[in-house]
Design goal:
The chain is mostly helical and about 425 residues long. It is about 70% helix and about 5% strand. The chain is built from 25 helices and two strands.
Amino acid sequence: MKQKKRLQTYICVGMLGVALCFGMTACSSGVQEEAVGELPVAIEKTEAMHFVEEYMESYWCSKAGLEQEMANNGFTEEEIAETLARLEMDWMDQVVAVAYECVQYSMYSKAGLEKALGDYRFTEEEIAYALDTIDMDWNNQAVIVLEETIAFGGYSQPMIEEDMRSYYLFTEDEIAYAMDTVAVDWLEVVVQAAQSTLEMGGTSKAGLMETLKMREFTDEEITYAMEQLGVVDWNAQAKMAADSLLNYGSNSKSSLALQLEQMYLFTPEQVAYAMDLIEVDWNAQAAKVATQYVDYWYCSKEGVQLILEEGGFTTEEIAYAMESLVDFDWMAQAKKVVDENLTYMGCSLAYLEDDLTTKMFTAEEIAYAMSDLEDVDWNAQAAKAASEWSDYNEFTTEEMVARLLEDGFTAEEAEFGAKSVE
């Protein structure tokens, strides 16, 4: 009878969204049942208890999960132990309630639900109890997942099977049951996938076939889908792709044409058609690229010119872009590079100079940027660099010293930085 009361409690909680915490009263068919985890009214609530109440009103949790969350929020081991002892929570009730909530709001296989409960840090015993208690048809769960995936559209049978296997953790028997139960016309699925891709615009014939191949449709399915599309204006698709590239970034004429052919797989004729139709001020595109690299990447004058050349802009377009920056203060730009480096990373004096040289600032600009560093605490910079390296790997003191020496710090600075993270 007690298990029946528990099940009624879980079902009531799932339907009404009532928090699984203190003073919770079970209900079923208008019959009031025993409360689960109810606190005596006379007990004064501590700060820790208030935290637990608020946390459990918002989040599902196990005992171990709640202990960890309390520790993360600064409560002592003594406070945690005392609070959980007063809580008098039935964690078997809790795990079953969480299991019911999981399967109510999402699709799970048995293994998937077991993993989810483990992620909440329930014990193996609690998880086993929950899986034995809830009444689920796992084959039917697999059927529902398959039906919803098919309705979403665009995926081949091999992709769906792998998703059910790797993501949802269904067994091979459950997957086979779903595939046998749900009547799926995979030729219709591939046609829908092709049509939806085309509707997004900017897709070449070769690009569409490649997309379907990546979704693991068979060659026969892809051929069938392409035949069912009928007449497609691939020239118009090329024009849409060109417009999209220009809307989301600045390009030279040659770079745009190259992307249409190599990335989007349009034919040379389709690319030529699109390029003839677009109306673009290529000088303005060059100026926009130059401004972006100056504002966001702190490039030098020579660095900007090199980027424009490598981006395929013509000599005239580059000249126009650089003329738009004629009043730009390159001295201040070099100083900004130094300031940004010192603010956001641990830098040695040698590194700063090397960085400015790599970014192609002139000797005069570098000298200006490096001229006002008397107040920099290079030991503090070495300590910052050591802390950053420690986030990625473990170093002995000797290894850290060697690492900081490679970063251009002096022996004294490297020693200081290495000791700061011991």
